């Protein structure tokens, strides 16, 4: 993953993780696996776990400890109402930016 992709991903990863949790509750390793399955191969588990701590501290998710077959209980994250509000704002911002960038890209393409 290039530097530009890494920087853009930093700014959007919280929204991406909240979108994943809007589909279903998950624990950190599941989220990392889903991201890698979508082509985000370079995302480290530590990055996802640090983000989960931040969104938990912000009150955007509820956390339950669920027994694990292998080792200690897992922390399962579920998006809550505050998280859904944050996700709605993320998607509004994403649409705004995407529309402007698409328009700029079309203009730039016409100039070539």
UniProtKB/TrEMBL annotation:
<dbReference type="InterPro" id="IPR052509">
    <property type="entry name" value="Metal_resp_DNA-bind_regulator"/>
</dbReference>
<dbReference type="InterPro" id="IPR036390">
    <property type="entry name" value="WH_DNA-bd_sf"/>
</dbReference>
<dbReference type="Pfam" id="PF03551">
    <property type="entry name" value="PadR"/>
</dbReference>
<dbReference type="InterPro" id="IPR036388">
    <property type="entry name" value="WH-like_DNA-bd_sf"/>
</dbReference>
<feature type="domain" description="Transcription regulator PadR N-terminal">
    <location>
        <begin position="17"/>
        <end position="88"/>
    </location>
</feature>
<protein>
    <submittedName>
        <fullName>PadR family transcriptional regulator</fullName>
    </submittedName>
</protein>
<dbReference type="InterPro" id="IPR005149">
    <property type="entry name" value="Tscrpt_reg_PadR_N"/>
</dbReference>
